[in-house]
């Protein structure tokens, strides 16, 4: 069964230099402001990578172009899909994200991905209740697709970041 349309809500790049990435995307896309979140901890009690507890830190910068969220991720320490990607491919486009409307739909979307042959390589719950999972079907040219459930508390932060682009 074909799932309903799930348009991407985010494009994300992994980099070893947030400043360079933000400067270039600002120049190319007309981004006005980036909101930086240094030292985001993906903790082993709530996150996993390759089926094992994850314990890593990344610096993150978020912005918007229209309704599309842009994310820059710079791994800081620990073993992660971001660090592995950077070592294997260098800086570059990492994933697009699609959004689940609620936690139940998040699970449905993960099951749909598994039925299509896309393996879950990382998942977790961030402070504020945001759930995320990265699925991969590399043999089909899809290194990572992020599936996320964004609760109201986090949505308010994203709306603030989006509003910052209009000032």
UniProtKB/TrEMBL annotation:
One of its GO terms (molecular function) is lyase activity. Keywords: Lyase. SUPFAM superfamilies: Glyoxalase/Bleomycin resistance protein/Dihydroxybiphenyl dioxygenase. The lineage of its organism: Bacteria, Bacillati, Actinomycetota, Actinomycetes, Mycobacteriales. Pfam families: Glyoxalase_4. InterPro entries: Glyas_Bleomycin-R_OHBP_Dase. This is Lactoylglutathione lyase. It comes from Mycolicibacter nonchromogenicus (Mycobacterium nonchromogenicum). The keyword Lyase applies. Gene3D superfamilies: 2,3-Dihydroxybiphenyl 1,2-Dioxygenase, domain 1.
């Amino acid at each position: 069964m074909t799932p309903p349309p799930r348009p991407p809500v985010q494009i994300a790049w992994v980099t070893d230099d947030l400043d360079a990435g933000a400067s270039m995307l600002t120049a190319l896309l007309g981004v006005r402001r980036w909101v930086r979140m240094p030292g985001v901890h993906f903790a082993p009690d709530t996150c996993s990578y390759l089926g094992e507890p994850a314990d890593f830190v990344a610096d993150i910068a978020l912005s918007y172009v229209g309704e599309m969220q842009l994310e820059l991720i710079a791994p800081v320490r620990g073993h992660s899909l971001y660090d592995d990607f950077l070592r294997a491919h260098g800086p570059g486009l990492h994933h697009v994200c699609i959004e689940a409307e609620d936690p139940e739909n998040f699970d449905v979307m993960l099951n749909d991905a598994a039925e299509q042959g896309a393996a879950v390589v990382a998942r977790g719950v961030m402070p504020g209740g945001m759930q995320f999972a990265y699925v991969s079907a590399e043999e089909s040219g899809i290194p990572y697709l992020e599936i996320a459930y964004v609760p109201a508390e986090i949505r308010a932060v994203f709306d603030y970041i989006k509003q910052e682009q209009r000032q």
